[in-house]
Fold:
Amino acid sequence: MAFTVSTEPRENRQLAVIIEVSQDQVDKELRKAATKVAGQYRIPGFRKGKAPYHIVVQQFGLSNLYSEFVDDLGQQLFRDAIEQEKIEPYAQSSLEDIQLEPLVYKLIVPLEPEVKLGDYYAMRVEEDPIEVDEAEVERRLEMHRDEYAGWREVDRPSQYGDLLSADVRSVIVAEAGEEDAAETVVLDETDWDVTLDEENPLEPAGLDRELLDMRAGEEKDFVLSWPAEGQSVYAGRQAQFHVKVNSVQSYEKPPLDDALAQLVGPDYTTLEDLKQAVRESLLEDEGKRAQGRYLDKVLDALVETSALDYPPAVIEDQLDAMMQDMDQRLRQFGLDGMNALLRQTKQSEDQYRDQMRPDAIKIAERNLVLSEVIKQEAIEATQEDIEQRIKQTVGADENGEISESSAELAEVLRYGAGRNMIVSQVLTDKAIALLQALARGEEPPSFTTESGAETLASTETEGAESPTAEVDDATEVTDDSEVVAGDSEVAEDAQ
Structure:
């Protein structure tokens, strides 16, 4: 096929590819299109397929003939052009412009990102101190008090918030002419439990106030009435009450003492034992969060000192992955994926993508520097590394044994896309371990494999998911392995 190709570098690692088709080739394509059209439509004065070229042009117009072949021809020309020019697109190209006379295609081709790492061997990043907030210790202890709180009998007059157990009998007061009528019983209960709640008064109005200040064993008679305009069946009537309080209970927390510690667990003899355990638990939790924050700082420092040049497709791909991940997460909760979120937030998909774009840029740039570290350090994943990560992923027991229920998933992870994901995670974990050690000024780990060991080098993982370090500043992590996931992970658990 006769064509010429020229290229123009564009910013952000993009290349404009201009393909000009020879006029002879265009004429051939136009005549093929005219023959096709003439065979599909009846042209007055001619049998189907027999109308001469100039008549077809008159009837249908030159632009319509171009439309018959210009797209298919462009796709073929593009494939030929990138092969001829030895161009390696990083992602799908886009058509910027088509000119018909002469026929010229202009396409924008995203190129592989360029990453020039900063001197990460000289990079030092300080760790934040790990401290326990004593206010949080007290809050956790209060939670234990709440856990063992309950109703306890008290020897005092009742008050709002108390639970009363009482024998209650209430009958409607007879009106004139009702002296001989049978009593109408409103309430006749033994051990009637009622909570005195100032926000939700009892009916008829005033009943809770009559019950206030009564002690266990105390009896009382009183008359109450329902308002005439009310909705009760007893509206406008009076009732005679007789109440005997059997018990008064208060909802109380246990004191903060050794007895509480012993209630919490057999490992605690004194309150100080419990406090120390709470502090250690908080220290462990804060340490895990600090690991995530430190990784954030290390990667951000490396990004800041590195020179990155990448096409917009890098960010758009990351946004696609984040959107897909969010969609899957929402569907796990029985929701209509992203559609539900967009309806709830009253946003379009484009608006939501714009909102997520700063995070996508941060994640993508961290991924780029990590990938480059893996490449420069020639980090490899051994078969042992891969199998260990698979066992970790499927939840093997302490002896490394995989349960029957997890065996199928383990097999999926040993081959194809599953294996690629596992390899990507292993490589990324090693890169992170290296960077963190260097940032602390420590001796970096050695990734040299023993002679004869089966390895999968980073250069052999084409088609694998790009290593990622999707870390959110507000995210809690349990270890480095949770900070790193496949492209579809959003570090939220990193999470």
